[in-house]
Amino acid sequence: MKLSDIGERRIIDLISRDREPDDCAVLNMGSFDLLLSTDVITRKTHIPEGASPEMAGSFFAAINLSDIAADAGIPVGFLVSLSISPDYDMEYLKRFYSGIYSKLSEFNIGIIGGDTKEGDDFTASGTIIGRQKPSLIRRRSDIAVNHYVLVTNSLGRSGAGYLFYKNSYKTEYGIKKMLEIHPRIMEAQILSMAGARFMMDLSDGIYSSIYQMKHDYNIGFKIDYNKIKKDPDVSRAAQISGVSESDIVMSFGGDYELF
């Protein structure tokens, strides 16, 4: 049996069967909870051709920060580990790290450690650390029947960007839409203090997230598509690609909004 036979989600289920499914692991430290999460990118798989190293580094930091946002946490530090080939361009690495630092500085944190190992190409693994009062952390398991479901911003941004890029239409703009992620750190804390009960980030698209919540907690959703705010480029992306607007909005991942 291969990974392609069962999918990424099943692998996660297998290795995390003894813990609650969530964006972060949570360790109680007494007066506060420690939040930990990790995310990995490879240059060939996750970074489109033509993306600047700074944009790639910023994207890498942002997707890790988004996991802290999904639990309404406050980021405090970031660890970066790299697997790179010995002949890798050092200028690319410097600019990649510049992008990481630029994104982290938006939240007043920095890189506090990491590791480097020789490898075949370029793989970056990030571990993000956060903290929060136990009463303000929002877990997926806090979901309940009759909750309203809201999204922090428009959907379809990343999907539209990908289709622009794939169809060689406004390629640089498409890359920017895919990789410029805005972790909803402040929004999550405001929502938590205002009484929001559960959160997750939309890394895999809203359809996937709905299925995941149904699978984990046996709670279904009624979604009014007409009330979803759509990225302004969704319509044009549908025109040039032949992909329906609803698929771009609901099925493509990469928006990293809070749900």
TrEMBL record:
GO terms for biological process: thiamine biosynthetic process. Transmembrane segments: none annotated. Keywords: Kinase, Transferase. InterPro entries: PurM-like_C_sf, PurM-like_N, PurM-like_N_sf, ThiL-like. Residues 22-131 form the PurM-like N-terminal domain. Pfam families: AIRS. This is Thiamine monophosphate kinase.
